[in-house]
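Here's what a typical entry looks like (histidine kinase):
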Amino acid sequence: MSLMKFAVNQNLCFISCCSALEERLGVSCRQLIGSPYHEWLPTIREGADDALSKVIRFGEPVQLVGYRFVSWNGACTADVVIEPMMMDDGAVGARVQIGDLEFCAPSNSLPAGKRWSDMGKLAAMLSHGVRNPLNAIKGAVTYLQGRYSEEADLQEFTGIMVEEISRLEQFICGFLSTSTQGAEPELVTADSLLKKVVSYTLLQAKAAGVSIALLGDDIIPVRIDAFQFEQAVLNLVNNAMAVLDDGGHIQLSCTMLQQGGLPFAVVEVADDGPGMDPARIKELHDPASEPQLGKDRGFGLYITREVVTSYGGRLEIVSAEGQGTRVQLWLPAAKSETEAQEQS
């Protein structure tokens, strides 16, 4: 297959495209013009940043060798070249060239663009569906805070609820307006975020007769959007709770491991549930496997994998029937502020 080329304006919307891209997406260039490129293609990232946006901001070209694309349509690698370009109105846009994608594993049922577009529509539908009950919960929590203002424990937990409701509202607004580009990575420690996840789920676990604990106290800095990370881990915890019987156990941990000479924060959620057979593990490991919303827990796992891969990490599953399941999130470890200052 020939090279795919397209150009975007300063708002990351298509302003031109080639016939190879039309063929790949199954739509005409006329349909693409004016729409954000990430509605039709997976966001192209360099680290945590949108690579096209970065080129436009700094005016420097970027070359991504062997870049890995992951979407509803499958997974593949290709070389990507992004160059700044001056448009007729004087604004700066970006010119993109994507190499041969013949090793991609496309779906036979729908073009890539339609799947990606449908995902955006699904996200908007889910966001709207969550907003109304969220407002009702917020009102109930506010009432409880006022009605039982002398109850210290209740105030602590309702305070957590108010904080998370506020963050969820911001997340939904971002989803409806700019998709994943609203995320703002920050330097945090993985262990501190895991402690928050445990505190959120203690009561839920207790009600289900399940124990949940955080093992170890390694302080490992990562650069990630804290809310996205917490939701990614919560998806794994909820999946574990769903398969555990009364008396089951969930353990969270974070360790520093080296791979390819690079440091990684490896976050693990382990349970002693029924485990999975090899066929199911293979299916969940396949990025091209479409999750069945409402039929299994693949949708939450898919979202978790998307979050991790968007920050240059990966998701791994270790499981066997009757031996429980361990899900690992490999995230590139970041330098602490002290280390960064010492090396500057």
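Confidence is low (pLDDT under 50) at residues 103-117, 176-182.

More examples are in the samples folder.
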